[in-house]
Specification:
There is one protein chain. The protein is α+β, with helices and mostly antiparallel strands. The chain has a single domain, classed as 2-Layer Sandwich (60s Ribosomal Protein L30, Chain: A). Helices cover 26% and strands 34% of the residues. Helix 4 runs parallel beside helix 5 and helix 6 packs parallel to helix 7. The longest helix is centred in the C-terminal third of the chain and has 23 residues.
Length: 339
C-alpha cells in the first residue's frame, strides 16, 4: 500500500481518474465539497471541510491510499468502503441533528457511538478484525453543549462502542486524530487489516487512554502511533501529535514553542518505533499533515518544521481546531518503513 499526498486539484483529479481501480480511497481537504461533487468519484472519497493554508491556499489537499491487489466495494448502512485481501478503507458521515430528534443526552456522543458500532460491524462482517487508523473530524470540537465539551462527548461515545465490542483493553489500539471543523457532520475515515498492528507509545507522555479524569469522563482511545503490516510491507501511522508532556499542555499561547515540542514528541515516538523493529525511523521519512488553529501562524509553524526536519520536509497545512482549546498546532504523518 502506498500513501500519497497531493496539494494540486488538477494533479489529484487526474491521478484519481487514471488510477481508480488501484485506489482504496482518499481524503479530500477543502472548504467546500465542490471538487468532489464535480468529479463523479466513487463514494469512498471523503470530504473534510478544512481550508488549505500556505502556498497552496485555495487548492485541494488529497491524501490517497493505493492498493495493488483486486478491490471490492460495498456499503453497510452509513459506511462506504473498499477492500482488498489485506486492507479495508471506509468512510462515513453522520448528522448530529438526527440524534437531537431521538432525545439523546449528548447528540455528538450518540452519533460517535453509532458511528463506531457501525464500523465494528463492518470489520466483523468482512473479517478485518484489527482497526489500524482513524481520522475523526467534527464541528466545534472545543465548544460546550449540554454542559460538556464536545470532544469529551465524542470520547464518551467512542469508548462506549469499544466497551460494547468487548475489546481487549488497550491492546492493538489504532493510531488516530480528532480535529475540529467550523461546520459539518461527524466525519470518520478508517483503515483496518487482517493482522494486528504494533501500538507505539511515547515515553515523554502519559498514554492517552490513561489520562486523568480532569480531561473528561472517558479517556481518548488511541496509540501515539501504530505499525501495520500491509501486503508484507510495514507502514507507520503517526497519530495527531501536539505540545503535551506527561498529560499537560505546554507553551500556551506560543505557537513556535508548541511546534518545537510537537517535533520533540514525534522524535520520541519514532525512536520507540525504531526500537520495536530494530531499525531507524527519522522525521525526514514521513509525509505530514499539519493542523493549525490560527491561519496567521502557518508561516511560523512551517519555519520551525523546516528548521527542525530540514529542507526536504514534506508537509501540507490545514486550518483546524485542536482537541484542547489551548493547543495551537497538531501534526500527524505516515510512511512506509524500510526493511
Amino acid at each position: 500500500m502506498l500513501n500519497i499526498l497531493y496539494h494540486c486539484e488538477t494533479q489529484c483529479a487526474a491521478h484519481i481518474v487514471n488510477n481508480d481501480q488501484q485506489i482504496l480511497g482518499a481524503l479530500h481537504f477543502e472548504k467546500t465539497a465542490e471538487f468532489l461533487s464535480s468529479a463523479n468519484y466513487a463514494a469512498i472519497h471523503q470530504h473534510v471541510a478544512m481550508p488549505i493554508l500556505g502556498d497552496g491556499d485555495g487548492d485541494v489537499v488529497c491524501e490517497v491510499f493505493h492498493e495493488s491487489g483486486p478491490l471490492q466495494e460495498a456499503q453497510y448502512r452509513d459506511i462506504h468502503y473498499r477492500y482488498s485481501d489485506d486492507i479495508l478503507f471506509g468512510v462515513l458521515a453522520l448528522q448530529e441533528s438526527d440524534y437531537v430528534a431521538c432525545g439523546a443526552d449528548y447528540p455528538l456522543r450518540a452519533a460517535s457511538k453509532m458511528a463506531y458500532e457501525q464500523i465494528f460491524s463492518v470489520l466483523k462482517k468482512e473479517n478485518f478484525p484489527y482497526a489500524l487508523r482513524f481520522w475523526n473530524y467534527m464541528a466545534d470540537i472545543n465548544g460546550i453543549t449540554h454542559g460538556l465539551e464536545r470532544y469529551r462527548q465524542f470520547n464518551l461515545g467512542r469508548q462506549q462502542a469499544f466497551d460494547n465490542l468487548g475489546s481487549n483493553g488497550t491492546a492493538n489500539l489504532p493510531a488516530a486524530c480528532a480535529l475540529g471543523m467550523h461546520n459539518g457532520p461527524l466525519t470518520i475515515t478508517f483503515l483496518a487489516g487482517r493482522a494486528p498492528s504494533i501500538p507505539i507509545e511515547n515515553p515523554r507522555q502519559v498514554s492517552a487512554y490513561d489520562y486523568p479524569a480532569q480531561y473528561g469522563p472517558r479517556s481518548p482511545l488511541f496509540s501515539r502511533a501504530s505499525i501495520a503490516t500491509i501486503d508484507r510491507k510495514k507502514m507507520l501511522f503517526l497519530s495527531g501529535t501536539a505540545s503535551i508532556v506527561g498529560h499537560e499542555t505546554l507553551h500556551t499561547n506560543d505557537v513556535a514553542a508548541q511546534t518545537q515540542e510537537s517535533i520533540t514528541n514525534i522524535e520520541a515516538v519514532l525512536t520507540e518505533a525504531g526500537n520495536k523493529l530494530g531499525t531507524t525511523c527519522k522525521p525526514t521519512d514521513l509525509e505530514y499533515l499539519v493542523y493549525i488553529r490560527h491561519a496567521k501562524d502557518v508561516h511560523t509553524v512551517r519555519a520551525v518544521l523546516k528548521q527542525r526536519i530540514g529542507p526536504n520536509l514534506k508537509a501540507f497545512y490545514l486550518q483546524a481546531d485542536i482537541c484542547r482549546s489551548e493547543l495551537l498546532v497538531e501534526i500527524e504523518g505516515a510512511t512506509q518503513l524500510r526493511s
